[in-house]
Amino acid sequence: MGAVKTLRAGLFLGILGVAGCEGLPAAGQAKAEPAGPAIVPAQAELPATEHDGANMAAIIADASGGAFVLGTDELGGVNIYSADGEKIGNIAAGDADSIDVRYGFGLGGKPETIIAILDAAANQLRFFTFADGKATDVTGSPVVSDFAAQGLCLHRDATDRNLYAFVVGDEGEIDQWLLYDDGKGKVTGRVARRLNLASEIGYCATNDRTGDFYASEQAVGVWRFAANPETDAAPEIIDIKRFGNIDDEVGGLAVISGGAAGDYLLASNASANTINLYDIGNDHAFVGSVGIGGKGDIDGVEEPGGLFGFNRPLEGAPKGLLVVSDDDNGDELTNYKLVSLGAISGALGVDFGSAPDEATAATSQIATVFPVVESAPVDNPGDAADDPAIWVHPKDPSLSTVIGTEKQSGLFVYDLSGKVIQYLADGKMNNVDLRSGFLLNGKEVTLVTASNRTDKSLSIYAIDETTRKLVNVADGLQDTGMIDPYGSCMYKSNDGAIYAIINDSDGNVKQWALRESRKGRVSAELMREFSVGSQTEGCVADDKRGVLFIGEEAVGVWKYGADPESGDAREAVVMAADDDALTPDVEGMSIYHGENGDGYLVVSSQGSNSYVLYDLAPPHAYAGSFAVIADGARGIDGASETDGLDVTSANLGGAFPKGLLVVQDGRNMLPPETQNFKFVSWTDIEQALDLE
């Protein structure tokens, strides 16, 4: 069959006035439940594949407003079909089994349309740019999973703006790859994380706008994961066979993202010869199903396989098209059927809307920065790393260090390249802070204090400037009298007195004055107690103003007087309920000190995996938000679920001429490892937020 059957006039065979396009529900009108599977006709079909390899296709928009169809043909690679359905080219991509496309991928300094193709024989992904109906191979170093791959789908993340490839396997494996330009104009990738289901996954799809990844577990049903690799990996069942709307076997998936009109998921109920529709915005409620019937000499679709939805207006197809692989193309080899989305939407009483121009992903308004360095991972798995403190070397800032808590066992000291200088297995250290200028044994030292949950104490150290290591200087056990000493910070008053402040999971706060009790030793004297109200951890003192900022995790940020005689009087700095930028839990916080008392209060907005800046000077106006995202070229992942953070405005040289932000990373990916800390240049933050 060398030519398309019937309806040859116009783009995609002149699909005009398709039955079922009228009668869409008015805004706010409830969708009618269909009595049974509606039947919509296949309006056109593409030529039969030469290798019986129709499995997955994609429609690609070109700059002129037209489109091409690219369909896999297994050993025959990928066929390129023109607007009138004729085969006009081929992409030699090995044993092509699956395909997907995204627009605007930065490659060689310019945006490109990128095609990803799964070569099943080589078990690797191949990448091509596509323009004017022609494909150019831009495959860099191999992107190869260590399992038998069955399918792929691409995802443009709205938050970090990175492009990811999901590869699914025959035993339920799912690899998520971060794709990036290798610096030579080629596409390569790094594994960001691995997910798993119990059995074979044949197809997948993503929703760039909502950040969802869907996988069809062939013998079970359809699952959803959060697509961002820095999010929880727990799967959610969308539909399941027998107990849901899947008869026996689920096949291809497609997402129709229509902006204001809503988002929909299509899933092949292959064994029932129908395609199910789910309303994503309505908790993935089942809307109904359609069968693809024949028309004229075009036969209907049995056992629908791969799906691809394209809801942009096309000449002759104003509502767009759905491409369906037909695994049972009558007496001929498998092929692809083209179905009007207008016919499907009319039959099921929904409005698919229209995807934005260029079909690009929605993007978050939040600024993004890359980490420059990451620390070595901590020793223990699970929730282990927690809070950092930056020590600026007084003579050579390049020798500065980062002290990080390992709340299951102790403290790490890292250099500015992230390498471990020292590890102290001194207990479950939760939070850490430091202050310089403490007179000990007749010499000024920097004191470091940490909340020790093992023995409910305040651990106290001094920094040896020569070795850059910590030396325990506590005069015995400094008992806090708290059931669970949790967050901690320090304060240095204008008269030079240094204090340690500890809070607990019940919101209780205690403040101690640190004093030299005997030669070379430090003890703590309790000076005041008060309650914030509920669980609190993050805190930081503005020494110059005598202000103490405390984060009540589920509520917001409070401001207290930092001197002990200030009592419990407080003011609200920002309440999460009134601030769209701050999403509980409110976690770590620190101060970036500018000139003349200016600067920023930096707060971890854990619930949104971001960081919020507020002016240090009253009234503490919002100054911007940013996220720390993965850098494929450096091989450093982003930061998420941050507990503690610290920042300095000191010139540390190298990558940190305007200072350094260190954040705890709750999920250390690329590849998955135990938790660690990410180092971010303040220069990058300043540029991303256009700060003064």
In words, what does this structure look like?
This protein has 692 residues and is mostly beta strands. It folds into 2 domains: 38-356, Neuraminidase, CATH 2.120.10; 367-689, 6 Propeller (Neuraminidase), CATH 2.120.10.30. The protein has 2 helices and 51 strands. A 5-stranded mixed β-sheet has the order 1-23-22-21-20, with helices on one face. Strands 7, 8, 9, 10 and 11 form a 5-stranded antiparallel β-sheet that branches. Residues 1-34 have low confidence and may be disordered.
Question: Helix and strand layout, with pairings?
Answer:
Elements: E1 38-41, E2 44-45, E3 57-61, E4 67-72, E5 78-81, E6 87-91, E7 96-107, E8 110-119, E9 124-131, E10 134-137, E11 143-144, E12 149-156, E13 163-169, E14 173-181, E15 187-196, E16 201-207, E17 212-217, E18 221-226, E19 236-240, E20 250-257, E21 263-269, E22 274-279, E23 285-293, E24 304-310, E25 321-326, E26 335-340, H1 341-348, E27 367-369, E28 373-374, E29 385-391, E30 401-406, E31 410-414, E32 420-424, E33 429-440, E34 443-452, E35 457-464, E36 469-472, E37 485-492, E38 498-504, E39 508-518, E40 521-531, E41 536-542, E42 547-552, E43 556-561, E44 570-575, E45 586-593, E46 599-605, E47 610-615, E48 622-628, E49 645-648, E50 660-665, E51 676-681, H2 682-689
Parallel strand pairs: 1-23, 27-48
Antiparallel strand pairs: 2-26, 3-4, 4-5, 5-6, 7-8, 8-9, 9-10, 9-11, 12-13, 13-14, 14-15, 16-17, 17-18, 18-19, 20-21, 21-22, 22-23, 24-25, 25-26, 28-51, 29-30, 30-31, 31-32, 33-34, 34-35, 35-36, 37-38, 38-39, 39-40, 41-42, 42-43, 43-44, 45-46, 46-47, 47-48, 49-50, 50-51
